[in-house]
Specification:
Chain lengths: ~160, ~775, ~290
């Protein structure tokens, strides 16, 4: 098994990596780059704790082989805040107590970001579909759904101000 | 001096939320240090067998392997257990379930450790397996420990059961079954064990009950308790589940670390977690009630058998709570309850949110609806008729001398959703493919450990010279928000804002043994300890302030980060200046608080006692849509009403309401860890089905607050009560919709459509007998049945 | 995950050569099934993994000049769900794709992977069979096109050799008079595996009689197939509850006759009847 070369952008930074091909994107993030915000939960794409964005779309990083991210842009929870300012989702998750044990939170945030990036005014149903690949055992999802609603509104306001 | 609370009762942000939304929060697997080794457990391949030989030579010779250990290498106690010390850290001469560890490997990489463990040769002599608790009771069943598989028998006795049945107009007899449930914390188990420079070991990991794990590590390694330090990493959920399974992981990692002299990291895969970890007890429950035609209950005879699995674990305590609460919050003069726990070759069973109550509540609340049906009353009416009020005498002979809010939670929940109107409308609806139904369930629950054992907890509040505050406690945070609530209490007492408070993750070497964080005792015990600690510091601060200002202490107050003259409201100094002044005056700003619970008692032989020092009351209502042609049940609305005493943090209380209900719905409809012939069938979340965001409805919370003298600011419990009655509410709703009752959980597609699950099963939950003591009592049976 | 050789294929031809030279090989597309298999590590562990996920020519949905709809095997379930072309010409395929797994799985998982994995519960397969879709397989030895109903030979089994790459899925659009539906029954409302499913198509003639009927149940037959017995019953008839129920019963009987009575039959025989009726009902009454 020979290592492969992978050029990728992770959280807006360019990397040239040489993973073993049998490593997953999750392995690379956690073990090579120290980006431990992305969580290992089930390793079969069922719990969603390892969700990251690949070219803007939510994906289970446990189901992506490291070489597959060549040329792709990856965003993890560590890259969600920008210029030292939290993303509105991060603020609203804290305000709505959508964070309990916190283990599902990074993945949940990334799924929510994909959702709001592509559907800025989601209905409750759309929100629930958007996070349906992220298992949470603590919250019953209620406060998470509320937080995403609220973040959509905050983002809408921000956009109106910026325009 | 008393003024309205500024922090208590308000929705504060969690103190640990920022790290959790930015990814900096460190969970157990996120800890790594230089030169760490990876530990791996070789587990049993037979559910019940004698070990004839273990050959570790090939594994030990593999390049990169630094240690291969078996039970022989444990210097001290080779088994642990909270009540009965029979759980082997590594199997000695026998394996008792498939999760048993047989040998350990420490290697430079995970891959090498895996390869090495595959090279260990174990020769087994298979023994007969017993996988069904009722089989395990039979005299000729294979014995798991000693010569009797029954290791617990709790009884409750009140009145005269024979007389009670003689007085009855009719008898209802039903049999219920519940399933194994996996806690399903999304974070799998992990630890990092590091040898300490002065001898001993430090373990950082996903441990729920640090002090009991520490006791076992110390005993296994023959170390003093002060040489074993366990630090709780940010815990990714536990729900009662990171106790013994973590104790064994701590012991194993510590053993490898001490043997190699290097840090050792151990992480379970999800499959290992399912395979080894303990589960919620499956129960077989036989309920026999005598009733009068007016709807009152003359006798309750109850027999429960809990599958304890391979080890004793918490079974003695779990089943004791079942016994105490087995009649539900209902008046009945004549009670005979027997609860047994038996060993099998299944996964051992232990603590899980609810702790013996979800099982019996499923039976009780189903029985209550059966009783209502029998006497022609509606489910609310029958509960209001039979439900406890202040001064009631429980089945264990305890007088309830606090605010008994059962009827308040029932009526408020019913009013919120229009229960009675919907119930009768749905009941009389014409047949159709999709049918609506509504169901109610309620409970009472003893707070904290009760007569299980010593119940005390400690906390430390320490004000720094700049006015910032550090709080630490023996009660741990698993995601439920204990750190936030204790911080809020400290901030309230000190009159400061929450952002001054830093909570430290629990460290066994930093705080006194506070018992386990279980039994919904976090707020009432930990919160009280934090309050005491903060009050100690407050006394120092006020004394220093009095000296500084020349004003009498009783006119001084701490509010909104200032020292104020309470009579005028004038701000005299900032909190930070006051803290600095204390330091100059040499006054200590370190407060240690300890809280011991009021006395409880239990008489084993008589089966009675003052089981708990106070109780909480709750009611849930589920509205469902049943697809009568496929058996699919969707929960479309849900009301959760609980008396919490006082909500310290409105947000975290609501979080418990929602999360508890969701877990209860999973229990009622989806979740089942199946074991056939001692072999588990589900080992990951593809087959073990948790509710997703599409399965949990909006939940309408009703926070009822009857402040209780026993808790800080009147607060009691919320974590477990919210989880214990959702399942019966759903099952009763299914009955309302279809006229058919589900006697086994979960109420999945097959059970709802066919009345039974599709698998080999010895026997089922069912109507056992419905007999009339007089001729007329059948008149209320529904025509369509 | 045990080691394997990793080959990133720059073209379809290279992918075929790599698969032939490094056999046994597995093609990596979305990875949502393959990575689970590799992690589990049992059975026929491949010597090499040929990554085709960069082959853009295998992506996309298009109407071909000869009037067919052609789907590149790397098209994701999300893309199937949101495709206007499919919504118009084969809406039940979009619907089926939107019920798969979760958003994360749908963003990565591909229709080609779904077909090649050949699980009995694969949700895109019933609509594809109802559409009479063909698949094109390519290898160093050449190319062959097979109708999907001849492709499967059992659960997780199909006739493709290990070195054959699926390069195209194509079918005729549904006639405009036809309506299609997909009904899925899972244990929960997301992340759900089909306990049973039904894809159905109904077309009516001018008199309101059924002129085109296609029924393909999922997780029911050991090998995917149209329920011709039931379809025959429908042709030339006017739609009614009674007729749709009778068709459902016919599918149920066929299922039991093919699978025999198994542990799950007691449930499935009752419910497949219902799902067929519902799927037909959803297609409308002309």
């Amino acid at each position: 098994m020979t290592r492969v070369t992978v050029k990728t952008t992770i959280n807006h930074r360019k990397y040239e990596l040489a993973p073993d091909p049998n490593q997953t994107l999750l392995d690379i993030l956690r073990e090579e780059l120290g980006l431990t915000g992305t969580k290992r939960g089930c390793e079969i794409g069922q719990c969603g704790a390892c969700t990251v964005l690949i070219d803007g779309r939510a994906a289970n990083s446990c189901l992506v082989l490291a070489p597959q991210i060549d040329g792709k842009e990856i965003l993890t929870v560590e890259g969600l805040a920008s210029d030292g300012r939290l993303h509105p989702l991060q603020e609203s998750f804290m305000d709505h107590d959508a964070v309990h044990c916190g283990f599902c939170t990074p993945g949940m945030l990334m799924s929510a970001k994909d959702l709001l990036d592509h559907a800025p005014h989601p209905s409750e149903e759309e929100i629930r579909v958007g996070i349906s690949g992220n298992l949470c055992r603590c919250t019953g999802y209620v406060q998470i759904v509320d937080a995403i609603h609220d973040a959509a509104e905050r983002l809408g306001k921000k956009e109106r101000i910026e325009n | 001096m008393p003024h309205p609370h500024t922090i208590i009762g308000k929705p504060a942000r969690r103190v640990d939320a920022l790290g959790k939304v930015t990814g900096t929060a460190k969970f157990a697997e996120d800890y790594s240090v230089a030169h760490q080794l990876f530990g791996k457990v070789l587990r049993a391949t037979q559910p019940h067998a004698r070990i004839l030989r273990i050959d570790t030579l090939k594994a030990a010779q593999l390049d990169g392997v630094e240690a291969v250990l078996t039970a022989d290498d444990i210097p001290g106690e080779k088994a642990f257990g909270i009540v009965i010390k029979n759980q082997a850290i590594l199997a000695l001469d026998r394996v008792r379930y498939l999760g048993d560890g047989v040998a350990l490997v420490a290697a430079r990489t995970k891959e090498i450790a895996e390869r090495a463990s595959a090279l260990i040769e174990v020769e087994y002599d298979p023994l007969s397996v017993v996988s069904d608790p009722e089989e395990a009771l039979k005299p000729d069943a294979p014995k798991i420990h000693g010569d009797d598989n029954t290791f617990v028998h709790h009884k409750v006795r009140k009145g005269d059961i024979t007389k009670g049945f003689a007085e009855a107009d009719f008898i209802i007899e039903r049999r219920f079954k519940t399933q194994f449930v996996e806690h399903s914390y999304i974070e799998p188990e992990a630890v990092l064990a590091e040898p300490l420079e002065h001898g001993g070991v430090r373990i950082t990991g996903s441990v729920q009950n640090l002090f009991s794990s520490r006791r076992s590590v110390a005993a296994a390694l023959t170390l003093d308790l002060n040489k074993v330090q366990i630090i709780q990493s940010t815990l990714g959920g536990s729900f009662g589940g990171k106790d013994e399974v973590m104790t064994s992981m701590c012991c194993r990692a510590a053993l490898l670390a001490m043997r190699t002299g290097k840090p050792v990291k151990m992480v379970n895969t999800r499959e290992e977690s399912f395979l080894e970890s303990y589960k919620r007890h499956p129960y077989v429950m036989e309920y026999r009630w005598g009733g009068k035609n007016d709807g009152s209950i003359t006798a309750m005879e109850i027999r429960c058998i809990a599958d304890g699995g391979a080890y004793a674990s918490m079974s003695p305590f779990v089943t004791w709570r079942s016994a105490v609460q087995a009649t539900g919050p209902y008046y009945c003069e004549n009670v005979k309850t027997d609860v047994y726990a038996v060993y099998t070759n299944n996964n051992y069973t232990g603590a899980m949110r609810g702790f013996g109550s979800p099982q019996v509540n499923f039976a009780i609340e189903s029985m209550m609806d059966e009783l209502a049906e029998r006497v022609g009353k509606d489910p609310l009416e029958i509960r209001l008729q039979n439900g406890f009020e202040r001064g009631a005498l429980t089945a264990t002979g305890q007088r309830l001398n606090h605010t008994v809010s059962l009827k308040e939670v029932l009526t408020r929940a019913a009013h919120e959703i229009g229960f009675q109107e919907k119930w009768s409308r749905y009941r009389n609806a014409p047949d159709g493919a999709k049918k609506r139904g509504i169901g109610i369930a309620c409970s009472y629950r003893g707070v904290s450990l009760g007569a299980e054992g010593a119940d005390a907890a400690g906390a430390i509040v320490s004000v720094q010279t700049d006015g910032s505050v550090i709080v630490s406690a023996g009660i741990t945070d698993m995601g439920q928000g204990a750190q936030t609530q204790m911080s809020q209490i400290a901030a309230e007492v000190l009159g400061i804002s929450m952002d001054r408070v830093q909570f430290l993750n629990t460290n066994t070497s930093g705080v006194p043994d506070s018992g386990p964080t279980v039994a919904s005792r976090g707020t009432i015990m930990g919160g009280s300890a934090a309050k005491n600690a903060a009050e100690t510091v407050r006394v120092s601060l006020i004394a220093a302030a009095s000296e500084m200002t020349g004003l009498p202490a009783d006119t001084l107050d701490l509010r909104e980060d200032y020292l104020v003259d309470a009579s005028t409201g004038e701000r005299l100094s900032t909190f930070s200046e006051l803290a600095a002044e204390c330091f100059r005056q040499g006054k200590p700003l370190y407060g240690f608080g300890w809280h011991k619970s009021p006395k409880t008692s239990w008489h084993d032989e008589e089966g009675r006692g003052e089981a708990y020092f106070t109780f909480v009351y709750g009611a849930n209502i589920a509205e469902v849509e049943v697809d009568t042609e496929t058996g699919k049940v969707d929960v479309i609305d849900f009301v959760s009403a609980h008396d919490v005493g006082k909500a310290i943090n409105r947000n975290t209380v609501l979080g418990q309401f929602y999360g508890g209900a969701a877990m209860g719905l999973g229990y009622g409809l989806l979740e089942e860890f199946e074991i056939e012939d001692a072999r588990p069938k589900q080992l990951n979340f593809d087959e073990y089905l948790l509710p997703t965001s599409m399965d949990v409805p909006r939940i309408h919370p009703i926070i009822v607050e009857n402040e209780d003298a026993a808790g800080p600011y009147g607060a009691k419990s919320v974590g477990e009560p919210t989880n214990e009655i959702a399942a019966p509410a759903v099952v009763n709703a299914i009955f309302n919709a279809t006229g058919k009752r589900v006697f086994e959980l979960p109420a999945n597609l097959e059970r709802v459509l066919l009345g039974h699950a599709l698998r080999r099963t010895s026997d089922r939950g069912a109507v056992l007998k419905d007999s009339a003591n007089d001729a007329e009592s059948c008149k209320t049976r529904r025509s369509r049945e | 995950m045990k080691p394997f050789d990793y080959i990133q294929a720059p073209s379809i031809t290279d992918a075929c050569i790599a698969a032939a030279e490094h056999s046994p090989a597995k093609f990596l597309a979305g990875g949502t099934d393959l990575l689970i298999e590799l992690r589990r590590g049992n059975g026929n562990y491949p010597r090499s993994v040929v990554d085709i996920s960069f082959l853009h020519e295998l992506r996309g949905i298009e109407a071909t000049p000869d009037g067919l709809i052609r789907i590149g095997p790397l098209t994701t379930h999300s893309e199937l769900s949101s495709s206007a072309l499919l919504r118009k010409n084969a809406s039940f395929l979009s619907s089926a794709a939107s019920t798969i797994g979760s958003p994360q799985i749908r963003n990565r998982g591909t229709v080609g992977g779904n077909v090649m994995n050949s699980a009995a519960c694969a949700d895109t397969v019933p609509p594809l069979i109802a559409l009479g879709a063909s698949v094109t397989l390519q290898s160093v030895e050449g190319r062959r096109t097979i109708t999907l109903s001849d492709f499967f030979i059992g659960p997780y089994k199909n006739i493709a050799r290990g070195d054959e790459l699926l390069t195209s899925i194509s079918f005729s659009p549904l006639p405009s008079v036809c309506r299609s539906s997909f009904v899925k029954l899972g244990r929960r409302n997301a992340l759900s595996i089909s306990r049973l499913s039904v894809a159905a198509v109904l077309g009516y003639d001018r008199d309101g009689r059924i002129a085109d009927a296609r029924i393909v149940p999922g997780s029911a037959f050991p090998v995917w197939r149209r329920a011709r017995e039931a379809e025959q019953m429908l042709l030339g008839e006017e739609p009614s509850d009674k007729l749709f129920t009778a068709a459902g019963k016919r599918v149920s009987e066929a299922m039991v006759s093919y699978t025999g009575r198994r542990w799950s039959t007691e449930y499935k025989e009752a419910v497949i009847t219902i799902l067929v009726r519902r799927a037909l009902e959803m297609c409308g009454r002309g």
